[in-house]
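Figure S4 source data
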Amino acid sequence: MKHADRTPIADLPAPTSATSLSTTVRVRVRYCECDPMNVAHHAAFIPWLELARTELLRTSGVSYAHLEAAGVFLVVVRLDCRYKLPARYDDVLEIRVRVSRATRVKIEHEYDIFRISGEVNPATLAGGTATDLLMSATTTLGCVDAHAKIRELPAWLASIDPASHS
C-alpha cells in the first residue's frame, strides 16, 4: 500500500530485535535544568520522558530518526503529569517507561521517575537504589506523516500488546 508522499508500508523500518515493552534510563539533573534554589523546573521532566521513550524504541533496533526518515512521525497528543516530590541539582534519576497500549494510529506510554539513593558510579550512573517516586506520567503519541496527516503506525508497533506480556 502506497500513499502520496508516504513510504510504502513494506519499506518502513522494522525491528532488528525483539520489541521491548519497557526500559529504564538514568540521568543526572543538570544545573541548567534548575531554578535558583537548585530544584529542577517542572518542564525539565518532559525531556526526560522523551529520552526514555526514544531509548525504548531504540531497544528494538529502530531509532526515531529511522522512522522520521521513512515519513513516520510520532507526535504527543496527550501528556498527563503527576508531580510528587522535587528533583534537585545533581540528583541521579531513574526514568521507567512502558508501553501501556497501542492501536492502529497511536501508542500510549506510562512513566515513573525515581530518585536514586546510595553509591552511584559517576561515569555510568549504575548502582544505588530507586527510592523516592518524584513523578508519574502518561503520554499518547499519534502517528502522522510529514504533512501532519494521520497515518498508520508501522505494523510491528501497532501490534504491540502489553496484555500478552503480563
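Figure S5 source data
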Amino acid sequence: MQTTTTPSTNIKIPAETIIEPAKSWVPLNLKEIWAYRELLFFMMWRDIKVRYKQTLLGASWAIIRPVATMVVFSLFFGKLAKIPSDGLPYPVFNYAGLLPWTFFAAGLTRTTSSVVANGGLIKKVYFPRLIIPLSGVVGGLPDFGLAFLVLIGMMVYFGIYPSWTSIIWLPLLLLLAAITALGVGLWMASLNARYRDVGYVISFITQLWMFATPVVYPTSLLSEPWRIIYGLNPMVGVVEGFRWSLLNSGNPPSAMILLSFTISSLVLASGLFYFRRMEKTFADVV
C-alpha cells in the first residue's frame, strides 16, 4: 500500500490499496460465527420452512420417513433374516440406531449442497461462509426431536426405561453425530462447489456408509479385535452409544465412543481449514 502525506496536517492518506487473495491456510476466525449468530438462526429457519413448503403432511415427514424405514428393516432384517438385536425387540433396536443415523445422513446431504444452493447469496454479500453448512446440520435438530418422540413411545410400549447415569450422555452423542456430519460435509461442500459430481454420488456414499454402520445389526456380531478397527467409522460409536444410553444395551462402548470422537475431531478440523481455504473461490465457481 502506498501513502501520501498532506503538508498541513501531516496525516498519511492511503493513495492505493492492493487486495490480494490469501496464499496459504487462512485462520478460522470462529468469532465471526458468534457475531453473525442471528443470521445462522434465520438461515436455519429458512431451510426448515422451505423443506416442508407446499407439502400436505408438513413436518410429519420427519416422523414418517424413519418410521417407514424401521418397518421395512424390521420385516426384512428382523423377521426374515433373523438378525440378532442384543436381546431387545428388533423394532426399537433398529429405530434407536436409525435416529442418529438419519440426523447424520440428512445433515450431510444438506451440507454437501449448501454452498451451491446459496450461490446467489454468496455472490452478493459478505458473511462468514461457514454459516451455510453449519445451518444445514443444526437445521436437522427439529426433525430429530419429532422423531425422538416416537422412540419414547416405543420404549414405553416395550417397557424399556433408561437410567439417569446413561441418558445424560445422549446430548454429547448427538453433538458427536453433528460434528461428524459437519466435518465430512465441509469437505463435500467444498468439493461440490467445484465438481458437481459430488452432489450426485453423495446419496450413494450415504447408503453404503449406513450398511458399514451398526444400524440394522449389532456390533456383537464382530469379535473384539475387529470392533476397534470397525470403530474407525465415527458413526459406530454414535449408534452404539445411543443404544446403550437409551436401551441399556450391554456395557458402555467407551472405546468406540472415544475412537469415534478422535476421528470426528480430526475430520472436523481438517474440514474447517479446507473449507476456509477454498471459500475464496466459491463466488467464481458456484
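The longest helix spans residues 90-117. The mean pLDDT is 85.
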